[in-house]
Amino acid sequence: MDKTTELKNLHKKWKEECQCELKKTATQAVPGDGSPNAEIVFIGEAPGKSEDEQGRPFVGAAGKFLAEMLELINLKKEDVYITNVVKYRPPNNRDPLPEEKSLCREWLLGELKIIQPKLIIFLGRHAMNNFFPELKISGAHGKLLIKPFKGMSTKYFFPLYHPAAALYDGSMRETLKDDFKKIPKVLQEIDKRGKN
Ligand code: URA
After folding, report:
1. Other CB atoms closer than 10 Å to residue 170's CB: what's the count?
2. Angle between helices 170-181 and 61-72 (to 10 degrees)
3. 79-121, pLDDT tens digit by residue?
4. pTM score > 0.85 for this model?
5. Which of 41, 84, 126 to mutate to test the pocket of ligand 1 (most atoms within 8 A of CB)?
6. Contact between residue 12 and residue 36 where contact means Cβ atoms under 8 Å apart
7. How far, in Å, from the CA of 194 to the mean position of ligand 1?
8. Is 140 helix (H, G, I), strand (E, B) or coil?
9. Sorting pLDDT into bands at 50, 70 and 90, what band is 195?
10. Number of domains in the chain
11. For position 75, what pLDDT does the model report?
12. CATH number for position 24
């Protein structure tokens, strides 16, 4: 089965089976989107208003900013795969709760298992703390993390500030852009070290 079909089946299964309470208030599920053959998977926090309306991740203001940053390294949204820790919009964009994150975890791990990216990029602390609960984004952003997880094809992770947080904060925005420009070098470093 090709990866596109595998992803389609995964999203269909979880849309039916996900027990998350957010399902009751959200308009629809927002599964990951982009290239099934992507080298890079970006993981955000949760869908916002525009994403909830359109059923696709990062289509609002934060998504526009993400697309601008991808352009800095000659990539388009279609070249990467973009998803979120939780697949349903929390009411009034509140932070997702621990049980909501854990109920969506198998869905996210399923996406990663199919895509098998070279590098996973966390957009913000919620995505990072899902895998590295002990880290603070203020200290970890822009640094390559290397840690094998059972059942995961990559051990390479790169945390960034969340584009929505950086959008209205000048200095954070510059830091995020600087970190973003490190991505090509990070990919080279992974090639040197070996995928596994
Ligand atoms: N913020 C996120 O974390 N995810 C989205 O899909 C949109 C905004």
Report:
1. 8
2. 40
3. 999 999 999 999 999 999 999 999 999 999 999 999 999 999 9
4. yes
5. 84
6. no
7. 31
8. helix
9. low
10. 1
11. 96
12. 3.40.470.10
Give me the mean pLDDT over the 152-173 stretch. Answer: 94
Separation of CA 48 and ligand 1 centre (Å):
6
Residue 154 domain boundaries: 3-193
Centre of ligand 1 from the C-alpha of residue 65, in Å: 11
Question: What would you report as the CA-atom Rg of the chain, rounded to the nearest whole angstrom?
Answer: 16
Tokens 């994403």 appear where? 51
Nearest to 137, CA basis, from 163, 160, 168, 119? 160
Ligand 1: list residues with CB < 6 Å: 44-48, 51, 57-58, 60, 62, 84, 164
Please give the distance, rounded to the nearest whole angstrom, from the Cα atom of residue 101 to the centre of ligand 1: 14
* pLDDT score of 196: 59
User: What SS3 state is found at 137?
Assistant: helix
User: Could you identify the atom of ligand 1 that is nearest to the CA of residue 124?
Assistant: 3
